[in-house]
Structures are given as structure tokens and as C-alpha cells.
Write a structure and sequence with these properties.
Shape: globular
Order of helices and strands: HEEHEHEEEEEHEHE
Distance between the termini: 20 Å
Helix content: 25-40%
Structural class: alpha/beta
Number of strands: 10
Strand content: 15-25%
């Protein structure tokens, strides 16, 4: 996933990736490298669950890319599953940084970022890339692991079904706690489109 994203960054570095902030692909890539490096320094390795607490925003996209880049497993969090998810670390938008007893790393993102030359930290396609939790209607939310290769398959389907070019922008209105809410922004970014 990150190899495809980095290839887009090479050809579309100064193009806008995230709207309405105007964050470019180059800045988004730099932020994801920075936070991936932070995660790796804190002990994240292949399969380590890293929570992400952010509404769909620049911070959410940076957090998702950073977790995948570090080889971790992305776990979108709400207060009901934070402790049950097995996350030791949580990336969080500053406004949502309630710790719940977990180590929280605030995602401070803006239109500029330092250049980072970290990695590459890449997940194997057979690794678990994401764990989504059910609503818990039976009393206990259950985590559903999703492998990177399944996400890549879905991204390929999405690109064939909903092709985008560098002038297109995807309006993300899906919950970040669903597979669609995870895949749709990635699909736009891996095709060189923008996300709003």
C-alpha cells in the first residue's frame, strides 16, 4: 500500500492531496514518514495494534498512512473499544486525545512538515493491516482482522470501478470505523486524486 502511495508522491508531490487544507502529497508523505518513525521508535513492529482516534480529517489520513508505513495494524477507536482492542499506543487528533490509560501521541499536522528520510517500513501483504470492531450489539465488540492483501484487492477493484485522475477529489462521508471509510480515501490517494 505504501509503495503505491510513495509512487504517486513522486509524480504528484506538489499537487493537493487533502482538501480543504490544501496539504500536498509531498507534505502528507513527510508527515506519514515522521509519525511512522515515532511509532517505530516506540516499539511498533509488524502486527502491533495502533489505535487511531480522529474524525475524517488530515489527522486521520496522516495517522492511517503512518500506522501502515510503520508495519502496524490500524485500529479505528471509539471509547467503547479502546481497552479491548489490545492497543498500547494511540495516535489522536488533539481535540480527541482522551487517554483512557493508553499512551497517546497527538497528531499535529499542518500544511508544512520537516523532510524525513526514514524507513522504508513496509508491511507484508499477508500481515494484518487493519482491525475493525463490530458494534457490540451482542454485548462485547469483536475485532475483525483484515489483511493488507485484502485491502490491496479492494483498492484495485475500487480503482477499476471508480477511476480517478489527478484532478478528481473524493468527498469522504463514510465512517472511519468501516472498511469503506478506510478504503475510499486510500483509493483516491493511490490514484493521485484528492480527498475532501
Amino acid at each position: 500500500i505504501m509503495g503505491r502511495f510513495d509512487a504517486v508522491c513522486l509524480r504528484a508531490g506538489e499537487k493537493v492531496a487533502l482538501h480543504p487544507s490544501g496539504m500536498s502529497y509531498a507534505v502528507l508523505q513527510a508527515h506519514s514518514l515522521h509519525y511512522a518513525e515515532v511509532l517505530v521508535r516506540l516499539g511498533v513492529e509488524t502486527g502491533a495494534r495502533v489505535g487511531l482516534r480522529a474524525v475524517m480529517s488530515d489527522a486521520h489520513v496522516v495517522g492511517l498512512l503512518s500506522i501502515l508505513r510503520a508495519g502496524g495494524t490500524y485500529v479505528p477507536l471509539d471509547p467503547y473499544v479502546a481497552h479491548r482492542a489490545g492497543c498500547r499506543l494511540v495516535l489522536s487528533a488533539p481535540a480527541l486525545a482522551g487517554a483512557d490509560g493508553l499512551q497517546v501521541i497527538p497528531l499535529e499536522v499542518g500544511s508544512q512538515s520537516e523532510s524525513w528520510e526514514g524507513g522504508p517500513w513496509q508491511a507484508d501483504p499477508a500481515d494484518t493491516a487493519c482491525v475493525l470492531y463490530t458494534s457490540g450489539s451482542t454485548g462485547q465488540p469483536k475485532g475483525v482482522p483484515i489483511r493488507a492483501e485484502a485491502i490491496l484487492t479492494r483498492l484495485s477493484w475500487w480503482a477499476r470501478t471508480y477511476p480517478m485522475d489527478e484532478g478528481d477529489c473524493f468527498l469522504s462521508q463514510l465512517s472511519t470505523h468501516t472498511l469503506g471509510g478506510t478504503i475510499a480515501p486510500l483509493s483516491a490517494l493511490l490514484q493521485g486524486g484528492g480527498v475532501h
